[in-house]
Amino acid sequence: MLLSCNSSALNLGSVNDLFAGRWEWWDDDLSLAAFRAARSTYACTYRRKEYGTPALRKVLEEVSDPESQDVAFLFVDQAHADEFDGLVKLAAHHFGTDTQLISLIGAGVIGEQRELDVPNQASLSLMTGKLPKGGKVEVVNPNNVDTTEDGDYLLFVDPWANIEPVLNKFDASSSVLAGGISCPVSQDEGTIAYMDQVLLPGSSIAVKFSGTVGLQTVVAQGCRPIGRKALTITKVEKGQIITELDGKPALQVLQEETKNAKPEDHELIQSGLLCGIASSDGEGDYLSRQIAGFVPGIGGIIIATPSLKEGDKFCFQVRDAGTAEQDLKWMVERAKTARMVNGNCRPMAALQISCVARGRGFFGVPNMDITNVMEMLPGDNPVVAGFFANGEIGSVGISLGSASREEKPSHLHGFTTVVAMIYEKSSQSVDEGAAGAKDEFLDAWG
């Protein structure tokens, strides 16, 4: 449970009137650049091949005016697990009590246009920033979230936390929920921290954005169907055992589909067969799920989800790097279009949570996902940070969060990349006297 370490020491109050300034970014040489059309500050810096306190000190030195930063996300990889508590305390001391600091251990980290996912190579990434006037950020207990209130949420959990009740709260909410699961080295050590406190195993933490600030999310699943895409579940038992597809025994249908698969699909099937369940949003997006086992006596297929219903659309799927790349590109374009259709949503920065099964090991080259994620934000140096996760959280497809008033349930995913873009809900560029800023900003979208 959140705050189980020492709740009296943690301040869960809102932070108001944050993030005024400009975009900032540190490049390879850690020199400062700026995107002049934006008015809100986010920065990201990183270190690799350096361990522990010296690496973090160098990163912290690059943060200009640390006491004025209002929120910070520190991501470290598993090579730093033994020093996590010390790193958290060092960062918290550097920023002070006015900065909302959230820290997490991942299987790798993301920052400065890179995905740092080389095994056993130490890396850490820090993103800091300020919100625009009228923006609010709060760190809250996920179990106490009131989804009837305005706000969008980031959710960070470890593998032993029970997040199903939290996900259920958002089924009929227009608030968006996005995040991921940390990557512990040991069951005995915490992997999530708030301010200077490492939370106990089994913890979760939610970061609420509200007021003039919201989240737009993208979930790119990276799987493609084999065989028929629009099978119908005609009989299901215990919510997760499919016994009939299109009126036939489910195992029989599986055998037919794999037998008739294209030759190039057979190797992918052997490396891991998945399935897709049609989402309820009407957009044609499928929720990818693992096949957990079989029940030959009833011709059943066990799916790793407890909520299957008769009438749901279904397909068998395989993981494919080319499809994964194209899916994320398509989702990014949809996200940019949705922002324009729904009004002035001014992007500030983005958090990227990618499955440990993606990255260079999946695509064969580094930085594939982040190269596409950066296209969601304007400017030459978009600010993106994040980590490689044990599981990813988000709505299927895209969501513009509470600003869209659209109800889209969030799910726990595998093999996906989830992007949570932080944006300002209303444009004030003309009021600020920046006559050409709005047009330049829109032009940056392409």
Automatic annotation (TrEMBL):
Keywords of the record: Cell membrane, Membrane, Transmembrane, Transmembrane helix
Membrane topology according to the record: Multi-pass membrane protein
Chief localisation class: membrane
GO cellular component: plasma membrane
Subcellular location field: Cell membrane
Limits of the FIST domain: 68-249
One family name in Pfam for this protein: FIST_C
Keyword ATP-binding: no
Domain FIST C-domain intervals: 250-396
Protein name in the entry: FIST C-domain domain-containing protein
Source organism: Cylindrotheca closterium
Source taxonomy: Eukaryota, Sar, Stramenopiles, Ochrophyta, Bacillariophyta
